[in-house]
Amino acid sequence: MVPAFAPQPQPDQGKIAMTTIVAVRKGDQIAIAADSQTTFGDDQKLLAGYDVFHDKIFRMGANYLAVSGSAAHDLVLQGALKSVKRLDLTSRQAIFDTFRKLHPKLKDGFYLRPEEDEEDPYESSQMMVMIANAHGIFAVYPMREIYEFSRFWAIGSGRKFAMGAMYAAYDQDLSAREIAELGVRAGCEFDASSSLPMTVYTADVAA
Predict the structure, then answer these.
(1) Model's pTM, two decimal places?
(2) Judging by DSSP bridges, how do beta strands 152-155 and 21-26 pair with one another?
(3) Average of pLDDT values for 185-198?
(4) H or E element in which residue 16 lies
(5) DSSP secondary-structure letter at 127?
(6) Terminal-residue alpha carbon distance, the chain
């Protein structure tokens, strides 16, 4: 029998990726930023100075993307997206359609294991993806839930610290880039699995 005082697992335990990734939209600018630490288990980290490919943000056409989850997702997602003939990430619906088509490719071509909880209504893609482009800032969650954000958002283990910092700074006289940088710095300051330096990319909002 399990003792009554035994710690109980949290609903998202094991699903929080070790990173801080943020996106901000303000005025005519959109920004996406990420830390540069890779974490192995609970006791080893790989810092940017030791990692040739420490930039967690990659570009596909006019889109910037960053993945929260297993480090394997980065190359897998890049490879899968390259197989899309007409890549459209310009709206919530377009992103949903793209990731719906990607899911069987991830399973068949990249050996994704889609199982999470038995009670889940859909197969999981096992990753969270932040997307920034001239049309907005978006996030894709494991069951292909697509969200578009009007101001800012964060994913990864440092997300709560980043969200608080960006909330406090958003109405100040700061650009989207400056607010995104504050968010990642807060994540790196307090989250054990996030470290500087960060990478930041910006785009102008489409007219």
Answers:
(1) 0.89
(2) antiparallel
(3) 97
(4) none
(5) -
(6) 62
